[in-house]
Amino acid sequence: MPTLQNYSSKQDLLVKYLYNDCSQEEAREASRLLMEDDQFCEEFFRLLSLKKSIQAIEKKPSKEVTDRILSYSKSLRSVVK
User: Fold this and answer.
1) Cβ–Cβ under 8 Å, residues 14 and 47
2) CB neighbours of residue 69 within 10 Å
3) Taking the CA of residue 72 as centre, how many other CA atoms within 13 Å lie in the half-sphere pointing to its CB?
4) Domains of the chain: which residue ranges?
5) Which of 13, 48, 68, 72 has the fewest CB atoms within 10 Å, i.e. is most exposed?
């Protein structure tokens, strides 16, 4: 039965591996777990899908937000003059 510490360590390794932020030894361990541990593998692909979804989100403000910023900026110009 896995311990909470073991689970936490696997989760940490999984996230580090997903973001290419692990040592060579950790990468080898993650690769081994991907081949041998079905739960680790399933969680990896679930998180990979989530990561791709997050990256696909458009990162720009809505027109309403832009209009509010511009309006505020214009109001400051009249105060400064």
Assistant:
1) yes
2) 11
3) 6
4) 4-80
5) 72
* Token pair 């989530």 in the structure block, residue: 50
In single-letter form, the type of residue at position 53 comes to S
Q: What is the pTM of this model?
A: 0.62
Instruction: Give pLDDT tens digits for 22-49.
Output: 999 999 999 999 999 999 999 999 999 9
Burial (CB count <10 Å: 0-12, 13-18, 19+), residue 17 = buried
Size of the chain in residues: 81
Q: Which two tokens stand for residue 17?
A: 């591996």
Burial class of 20 by CB neighbour count within 10 A (0 to 12, 13 to 18, 19+): exposed
